[in-house]
Amino acid sequence: MDHTEQGAALIALARHAIERAILPARQAQPERHREVAAADDEAAWQAWGASFVTLTENGQLRGCIGTPEAWRPLKDDVQANAVAAALRDPRFAPLQPREWPGVRVEVSVLSPLEAMECANEAQALAKLRPGVDGLVLACGRHRATFLPQVWEQLPAPAVFLAQLKRKAGLPTHFWSPDLRLQRFTVHKWKEPA
Prior knowledge:
The protein is α+β, with helices and mostly antiparallel strands.
């Protein structure tokens, strides 16, 4: 399966999972069953993988949930994160069936996390690769993740890191020896408009 086919299959898996969760059975899209069945046969989907599923409506974020570290088969991870993005993202009301036709699905598959050794914020900023790195920040009970796609809205490394700290519930200028950063990259696929 090539890269494009893999993306189409992952998007089909995500869409099918959301449809099963929010639509009456008679409204599910039958053509997706073939794509999902093809994905079921793909051995790669049984390997553990980490994913994020992002939903947009009219170009605006409508839900995004994911798993920064692999702990289950990629197929199961994508399906679970798709349903969670549609129904359990705390920033949004659950997705309603009437909204579904206008929602676009994006699936990101994450590389393994790589620890970034940084003695201070200046070192962290120097190591970041804008447009390439996703970032997991952890400090005590505070934790947050930004996908590499967030660079599109926050292209300056200092702003990217400050907003990630804010998302984690920390002050934007916070730094501590206990703060841990891990970076990752993604392969992503998005439905056409």
